[in-house]
Structure formats: C-alpha cells, structure tokens
Design a protein that fits this description.
By secondary structure, this protein is of the alpha/beta class. Among the domains are: about 5-150 and about 150-190, Neurolysin, domain 3; about 225-285, no CATH class; about 335-395 and about 585-720, Orthogonal Bundle (Neurolysin, domain 3). The chain has 28 helices and eight strands. Helix 14 packs across helix 15 (about 375-390). The longest helix has about 30 residues, at about 335-365. This is M3 family peptidase. Keywords: Hydrolase, Metal-binding, Metalloprotease, Protease, Signal, Zinc.
Length: about 725
C-alpha cells in the first residue's frame, strides 16, 4: 500500500517486533508535494526532522531522547492525517498521480518517528519506553483505522483501480494500485458504519494485547537468569565460560557465570553441560517464558487475541483468520499451507525416532540410566555427531569468528551483487549504542553509493531476543533517488575482553540468513515504497537461500580460520561438516514444524473451544509429536504470532520459502559455475532480489527458474524420502 500503510506495517510490527525480519520505515527526505505547507509545522523534535548529515542523510541516533517520542508520534499522526485529508478531498477527478502517488508520498515524518520507535522497542527497551508503548499502541491503531476507513479516500482509490487509466500504467504501477486497493478492502473499508466502528475497536484492543504479550516475554527473559559457580562448569567450552563470566559481571554478580534466558545462551549450555539437573533447569526456564502462572503469564492474552482476530475477520465474511491472512500470500489458502506441512511432517518425526534411538544407545552404553528427555536432546545429539561423524561442534566453533564471517558475507555480496563494503569512520554516522558499527555500500564497478549497512551484533539487557533485519530508509525513485539504510541485529554472546566472538555453526547460518535480508533491501530497484511490502511466505526465501554460500569452498577456504593460530579449517573437518549436513534434521524440522502447524491450528479452530494452556499439548499429541522435543516457540512466548500480525497464521512461510530455497539452490548446483555462476547469479539479483514486491512472487520465481518450485528438492535437501 502507500506510504501511510508502510507506516501501518511498521507500526504493527514495531509494537511487538516479532519474527525474523523487522519492519521497514521507508523514510524519505522530502515533504509531500500535495501538502507543501504541512511540514512547515514540524517542530524541532529530532524524531520528526528530516535526516541530515552525510550519505543522503542519516537518523540522528545520537540525539534521540525518549521524552520526544510521545509528542513526535502525536504530531506525526496529525501531519499524516492532514496529508490524507488533502488527498481524499482533492476536487480533481481521481488519477494514479493525484491519488496513488500522493498516498505513496504521505507519511514520511511519521515514518521517521517509527525508525526511532523501532530502536527503543527492539534494541534499547526500558520500563519507561514500555509505558509509552502501552499508552500509544491503541492510539496508533485508532489512527490507522481512521485512514483505512476514510470513505472518500477509498472511493478515490477504487476509482483509479477500476479506471481505464490502469491499462496505460507500468507493471509496477498496476501492482502498487492493486496492493493499495486490496489493503483497503481487506481491512474494513467496505464495512458499514457499525462494522467499521467495531473493526477499529478490535484493532485497538489487539494493539494493547500485542504489547502486553511481547513485554511479558521480555520480562521473563530479563528476570530469569541462571547463575552457576565454578564447580558447575563441567563440559562447557572455554569461550562460553568467559562470555558467561562477563555476562554475570555486567549484572553485578562477580565470580559467577550467567546463563541468560536467550537462545544464544541456552542452546550451547544444553549442548555441552554435563550437569543434567542444571540442563533441565535452564531448559525449563527458557521454554516456560510467558507460562509461569504469574503476572507475566500469556495464556489468557492468547485466548483474547484469538477471539478478537476471529471476530474481526468474521465482520469481513471470512470463516477463520487463516483464510483471510493467506488470501494474498503464495499459499492462498490454509489448506494449501497445511498440505505442505503434512507432506514433510511424517518424514520429520520418523527421523526423530532414529535420532532418539541413536542417542539412547549412547546413554545406555555410558550407563547413564536415563530415558532421553528434551533437556538431553542437544547434549546427546552432540555425542552422536562426534560418534557418527567424529565432528565436535566446539572444534568447529574455533573456526567461526564473528568478524571473519562478516568478511565472508562481504565477499559473497561482492561476487553476487557487485557490492563493496567499506567501514565508516567512528563518529561519522550517529549510532544508538557503542556496539553498533556502520559500513558504506558501493557498486564495485561504478563506485556509486548504494547505501549504509548498520550492524548491532551483541546481546544486552533491553534488547529483544533473536535476530532480525530492518531498514531506516528504503530505495525508491518516484521523488528522486533514495539510497538504502539497512540494519542487521543479533544476540550473540560477546567474547571476553580482547577475545574474538566465536559462534556455533547454526549461529553462522543465522548470520548469513539475516544478511540475506539486508542484501534484499540493498539490491532493490523499485520506484515506489509499496513495492517493498513483503509477501510473508516469500520474503524469507531470499535470506534462507543466502545461507547456502556459507558452505561454498570459496568461503570456507578464505574465512574459516582458527581464532588463535590463524590456520585455515582442515579439509578433513570440512568434509565432516558436509557429511553431517543433514544430521539432526529431524530435530530441527520437527521443532519448527510443530510451531508452524500449531499456528495454523490456532487460526482455523473456533477460539471458543480453545484453552491455550491445554490446546498446544492436546493438538501435538494428536499429531504424534515426539515427547523428546517441544515446539521451537511454545505458544506463551510465540512472539511471531502473538506479539503482532506479521507472522500470524504465516509461520508456515519459512517452510514454503524452504521449498523455493532448495529448488533455487539446485539451479546453482547444476550451473557450470556452481554457486558463483555469473548467469544464474544475474537472474538471482534481477528477479529474486531487486524486484522486491513489484511483481507477483510466483511469476518472479518462474522467470528465475523457468518453472515453479518442486517440493522434491526440499526432501532431497533434508535427506528425507520423497513421498510418492
């Protein structure tokens, strides 16, 4: 949709910030031509001000103050509404230029505010911010409802969409017009007055609930830290011990070791700690986030969210939330999405049975006298990995230095996208935390400035868990060329002072994955902001695909070097890594798919029949969920789905995108030049990265591949039998 709905998307996600890829502010530096006097009223509030400084202007992260946020949001909304009113009340007949383009140009001041809002929400959260967030989220929801329910505005959009002018528009202009019209129609614009009022009321209630849900999870992540002592470190790698000591010291617990309640801390602890009792403690602490029966418990909030979502789509005539949500996605229907899940699920749980049998055999041989439990899975999987492949994850980790992997990503970007990354001198570009570093991105051939890349890699208090990518400005040309400000954000446990940060192989894949989102932003060649709006079961594809370059010989040979000796990773160890490529695939696929299937079940079941505290357990039992595994994201902390609507009924999209990923990877594998094949690489950038959402994703993929993707590629990729 238009600029104001780019802000809508940003707000919806910023209020909760769930999922992998964060919101896009799509900010710009010009006032709206249709309302040239509006920006004259902007105060000296830095959050509203146009970006200034080098590189076509950058956010003033060094001047942002929380006291400015509420007035900036209020003023930004007022400015945006004035712009919208000017468009809606234009006496001239509606045209693409005076309606659709004018809407694309609206909301820039508010978009800039959302950039800063996103930093406070994701990277620098505090109790003071959360108070403002709780107060403003329903007001923001009401603001967006006022726009989407503006009858005069919708009438003009509808007139353009149904006009003869459509035939003369470019393909991108036609798609932008359709996306704008569809966005109105799917969000209550066609309802009667009573329906519109209730629709808006539901949105406000949901906005409040999303904020409560995400803040409850963050509270449990901050409040539950497991401190251990020196006699409880058995099995833990030296790099992890040093990082845990530093984390404890930061929290005023000198002499202890902090296992923080995040995946990047929990995962290695469960993999290496020989203390089974402590493993269970850490496991329960992590997987019970939002489910502790206290003031931060999310079960009742889930029930309220599901009930309100169901009522809202019923107003629009849909049977359930999933039906509404998937209508404009690649899957089209919840049945199609579930069908993909069910093609893979039996093979995944069958593989889990094999994995558990292998682990139990080792436990029995060691005389452990246990049955494999969820807190044992990673620990004994590591033993199996070493026994089957003689592959020690901790040995691999010695060759995975965060800075070297970043250089590897730059190398891949240079080969595929023709990008150069040059560090920006400290102090030249404002940052919001000393950990944040900035690089200038240029075209290798012409030297032309493409944009900036911000990196915020380390975990800290007030930063949400996980990894994500976002933009502070996206590429457009409809009002003059706007260059890109892209950002990657992670939660790696920082190495001890003077020591490199070493990460696991899974974390290295995630690092490449998120950089894939950044390359998607940086390579864009579209005219309008709306062309950046994503199709959720497609937008993860590009980033998943970029993970494949981590295992290319060019990356392995140049950038995987030992953190002490500088020696390249031995060929024998690389061979073991590749031989073990599908190791533990049952675990990884099953924990993810359980979350994706539950997401679909939550949104295709009458919420009146759902008790969140038991629904997850009962449904997974019916599915035959192995008792040794839990959902990757259990319901009470499933932020992708209940902290906002970005991934709600769309978490299956990772698997949908994986089918595309596996199929596209085979296109490179079959090419003469392999993963650096020039011809396939050019098609990759042209049709799968630079085009964003200016073309239907299914059509774009066919232009790249010459056909639709096939699920067989996914099954081959994971070492699963192909269903007949």
């Amino acid at each position: 949709m238009g600029k104001f709905t780019s802000s809508l998307t940003a707000a919806a996600v910023l209020l909760a910030l769930a999922g992998c890829s964060g919101p896009q502010s799509d900010t710009a530096s010009e006032s709206t031509p249709a309302t040239s006097t509006i920006n004259d009223t902007i105060s000296d509030n830095v959050l509203l001000a146009e970006y200034s400084g080098p590189y076509d202007g950058v956010p003033a992260f060094d001047k942002m103050q929380l006291a400015d946020l509420k007035p900036a949001l209020e003023q930004g909304m007022a400015l945006n509404l004035a712009e919208i009113e000017a468009i809606a009340n234009n006496p001239e007949p509606p045209t693409f230029e005076n309606t659709i383009v004018a809407m694309e140009a609206a909301g820039y001041a508010l978009g800039r505010v959302f950039t800063y809002y996103g930093i406070w929400s994701s990277n620098l959260s505090s109790p003071e911010f959360r108070e403002i967030q709780a107060e403003m989220s329903p007001k923001l929801s009401a603001f967006f409802s006022e726009i989407t329910q503006n009858e005069k505005l919708f009438a003009r959009v509808k007139a353009v969409y149904e006009s003869d002018e459509m035939a003369s528009l470019t393909e991108e202009e036609k798609r932008v017009t359709w996306l704008t019209y569809n966005g109105f129609a799917r969000n209550g614009a066609t309802l009667d007055e009573a329906g519109k009022a209730r629709y808006a009321e539901i949105n406000q209630q949901l906005a409040t609930l999303y904020t409560q849900f995400s803040n409850n999870v963050l509270a449990d992540e901050e409040n539950y830290v497991t401190y251990i002592t020196a006699d409880q470190l058995d099995g833990l790698p030296e790099s992890f011990v040093k990082a845990a000591a530093a984390a404890a010291s930061e929290r005023g617990e000198e002499g202890k070791y902090a296992i923080t309640n995040t995946r990047s801390s929990m995962d290695p602890f469960l993999t290496y700690s020989t203390n089974r009792e402590l493993r269970e403690t850490v496991w329960r602490t992590y997987y019970n986030r939002g489910d502790n029966g206290d003031e931060f418990d999310n079960n009742d909030i889930i029930k309220q969210i599901l009930t309100l979502r169901d009522e809202r789509v019923e107003l629009l005539g849909y049977e359930n939330y999933s039906q509404w949500r998937l209508e404009d996605r690649m899957a089209k229907t919840p049945e199609n999405a579930m069908d993909l899940m069910m093609k893979v699920w039996p093979a995944a749980i069958a593989r889990v049975d094999q994995e558990v049998a292998d682990m139990q055999a080792i436990a029995d041989a060691e005389g452990a006298d246990i049955a494999i439990a969820p807190w044992d899975y990673r620990f004994y999987a590591e033993k199996v990995r070493q026994a089957k492949y003689e592959l020690d994850s901790n040995e691999v980790k010695q060759y995975l230095q965060l800075d070297k992997l970043r250089d590897a990503m730059f190398y891949v970007a240079g080969r595929l996208f023709n990008f150069d990354f040059t560090p920006v001198a400290e102090g030249e570009v404002p940052v919001f935390h000393p950990d944040v570093k900035v690089w200038e991105v240029t075209d290798k051939s012409s030297g032309e400035h493409v944009g900036l890349w911000y990196l915020d890699p380390f975990a800290r208090k007030g930063k949400r868990s996980g990894a994500w990518a976002t933009t502070y400005r996206s590429y457009t040309t409809f009002k003059g060329k706007e260059t890109v400000l892209a950002s990657n954000n992670s939660n790696f446990v920082k190495g001890a002072e003077g020591e490199p940060t070493l990460i696991s192989w899974d974390d290295a894949e995630t690092y490449f994955h998120e950089f894939g989102h950044a390359l998607h932003f940086l390579s864009a060649k579209v005219k309008y902001p709306t062309s950046h709006s994503g199709v959720r079961d497609y937008t993860e594809f590009q980033s998943q695909l970029l993970e494949r370059w981590l295992t290319t010989d060019e990356v392995i040979d140049q950038f995987l070097v030992h953190y002490e000796s500088g020696e390249p990773i031995p060929d024998a160890l690389v061979a073991k890594i590749k031989q073990a490529a599908t190791f533990n695939e049952g675990f990884k696929t099953t924990e993810y798919m359980a979350s994706a299937i539950m997401d679909l079940l939550y949104h295709t079941t009458d919420p009146k029949t759902i008790d969140p505290d038991s629904f997850e357990r009962d449904q997974l039992t019916k599915l035959g969920m192995p008792e040794e595994i839990v959902m990757r994201h259990r319901s009470p902390h499933f932020g992708h789905v209940f902290s906002g609507e970005g991934y709600a009924s769309g978490y299956y999209g990772y698997m949908w995108a994986e089918v595309l990923t596996a199929d596209a990877a085979e296109a490179f594998a079959e090419a003469p030049g392999g993963f650096y094949d020039k011809e396939v690489g050019e098609r990759l950038v042209k049709y799968l990265f630079s085009i964003r959402n200016a073309m239907d994703p299914a059509e774009a993929y066919r232009k790249f591949r010459g056909r639709d993707a096939k699920v067989d590629a996914l099954m081959r990729d994971r070492g699963f039998p192909i269903p007949e």
